[in-house]
Amino acid sequence: MTIDEQEPVRRLKANQIMNSTIAELKAYVEQALVAAFGADLAGTDPMLNPASNPKFGDYQSNVALALAKKLGQPPRAIAEQIVQQLEVSHICEPPTVAGPGFINLELKTSYIEAQLKAIQADPRLGVAPVEQPKRIIVDYPSPNIAKEMHVGHLRPAVIGDCIARMLEFVGHDVLRISHVGDWGTPFGMLIAYLREAYPDALTTTNQLDLGDLSSFYRQAKKRFDEDENFREAARLSVVELQAGDEKTLKAWKIVCQLSSRSYRKIYDLLGISADILERGESFYNPFLPEIVEELDRLGLLVEDNGAQCVFLDGFTNKEGKPLPLIVQKSDGGYNYATTDLAAIRYRVQTDKIQRVIYPVGAEQTNHFTQIFQVGRRAGWITDEVEFIHAPFGLVLGEGGQKLKTRSGEAIRLQELLNEAIARARADLETRLKEEERQETEEFIAHAAEVVGISAVKYADLSQNRTSNYIFSYDKMLALQGNTAPYMLYAYVRVQGISRKGGIDFKQLGADCPIVLQDETELALAKHVLQFDEILSAIDLDLLPNRLCQYLFELSQKFNQFYDRCPVLQADEPLRTSRLVLSNLTAQTIKLGLSLLGIPVLERM
RNA sequence: GCUCCAGUAGCUCAGUGGAUAGAGCAACCGCCUUCUAAGCGGUCGGUCACAGGUUCGAACCCUGUCUGGAGCGCCA
Length: 604
Description:
alpha/beta; Gyrase A, domain 2; 4 domains; five-stranded parallel β-sheet; four-stranded antiparallel β-sheet; 22 helices; 51% helix; RNA-binding
C-alpha cells in the first residue's frame, strides 16, 4: 500500500468551522508571538488547546515549549515574553505561566455570560456554517436486496447516517447514496427458486412480504447447494437477467421494490434519513464495459488466467507475487471491484463530488485501498477529490464472539430492534409500577420505542468507530453511565422544570440577562459554548463518539447544576438566567442527539 | 507467509506529542419535607502488552517481539 491513500484525511485542515473563542485566542497568541519574537514567527501554530485539567483554566498554549530550541531560550522565559505581549483582557483573566512553560488562559465570567446571551435565541446555537462547503457523498449500507437486513447492516446505517447528518448541519452539501446489491448470482438463485416453487408469486406480488422472501432465500440457497440442475437454472436466470429477458426483469423488479419497501420500514424505525438515493449495482451496468476499456486504453490492464486485471502496487499474494484487482472475470462477467470503480468515476465526473465517505467495515480496508489506487492511477481520483474509507469494527456478542443466533445465522435487524424495545418497555413498566404512575398505552409504547432504538444507536456511536464493539442490551439500556437513557433523562429534567413552573422557554426572549454564580453553572455554561469545537473536530476525523462524549459530559454537568442550583425558587435575575441556561442545555442536547439520529422525549 | 487493526483500572471503554493517564459499570460509604434519586457527592482501583529508539517532553511517533482479531485471485 502506498501512503497516499491514507493522506486525505490528515491533510484536511483548511475547511474547519471556526469557533469564535478558540479562533480568536489563537489569533491573539500568534500576534503576541510576532510582537515578542519578530515576523519570522508569523504563521506559527500557537498550539492552543482546551486545558488538560480545569485547574489550569480553560485553554492552554504549549507553544513556548516547542520554541525553546529554535529561539535558544528557556521555555518559561519565552512564555513570559509572549504573555507580556498578549492582549486578551476582554476575553480572559490575566494569562499565567505555569510549570515548564505552559501559558494558561481562563475565560472571564463576563465573557461567558455575554457569549451565552448571544446564542440564546440562535437555532444553530452559535455554530457557524463552514466557509467553504463541499459536495460530499456518504455511502449508505449496501445490503443485498434479495435478503433481509441483519445485524451487519446496523453499524453502516447508524454511523453513516450520523456522519451525513453532522456534515450536513456543518454546512456541507451531502448526497446520501445506497449502492444496493440488486444484481448478480443471488438473484438468479432467487428467481429460479421462485419460478420453481411459487410460479404464482410473480403475478400476485402484493401478498408477498420480505419475510417470505427471506425464507425463500434460505430455501433457494439450500436447493442451490444440493442440486446441480438447480444451480444451472440459477445461472441461466442470471444470464437471462443480464440479457434483459422481460419476464426475468419483471421478477427482478418485483423483488427490488419489495425489499426496498422492507428496508424503508426498518430505516424508519431506526430513524435513518429518508433522503437516500438508491443507486444499485444495476445502475452501473451500462458503464462496466467502458471501465474495462478505459483501463485497457490507459495501459493498466493485464490478462491473467483469462481474467482482466490491474496489478496492484504494494499488494502481494501468498507466493509473494503482485496481486491483481480483477475487473473482468474469465467468464466475461464483472465483479464488485468493477462496479465500485464505475461508481468512483461516475461520482467524480458526473456528480462532481469533492469528497466521498464510505462507512464500511474494517475488513474491507484492502478492497478500498485497492480500488482507490486503481482509481488514482486511472486518473479519476485527483488531488481535488477525497475518497475516504471510514472503517469500523465488528459487532460482537457478550462473549466476544461474532454476534449470531443460536443456529449460527446473522441476527435479523428487526428482531434485534424488537428486543431492545421490549426490554426498554419492561424497564419502563417496572418503574411506573414502583412510582405508582399511570400512563397511557400510547405514551408507554412511544417512550419504549424511543428509548430502545436510541439505546442501540447510541451504544454503537459512543464507541470509537474503528474498534470492535460488544453488543449488550443491559449496558446500552442502563439508566446510568454514558447511555442514551441518561442523556434523554437530562433533557426530560429540563422539560420538567418548564412544566412545573408553567414556563414556555420560547417566551423567554432573546435578551435575558445571564448571571453565572455557582461553579456548577459556570462549568455548564462553558461546556455549552464548546459545542462547535466538537463539531469542527468531527468534520475532520468523522468520529461520532466525540459528540457522544461531549453530550455525556454536558448531561453530567447539567445534573450537577440541577443538584446544586434551584431554578424555579431562585430570586431574579438568577431565576431567569438559570431558566435560559437550562433551556440552552436542553437545546444543545436535542440538537446534538439529532445529529446522532436520536430524538428526544418530553417525559419518560 | 504477507497486509491491516487492536492490546490502557476487575469489566466496557475515552484519551492520535504536553502538566499528577480519565470516565462509566461493578464494590463500598453518604445524600430525597425542596424543579423526576432514571440523580448527586465520596472511597477503592493502573508496570498504558513487552523491549529498545526519537524528543526538552511519549499511552500517543519509529523499530522489534508477544497476544488477540480481520483480510489476502475471479463472492460482495
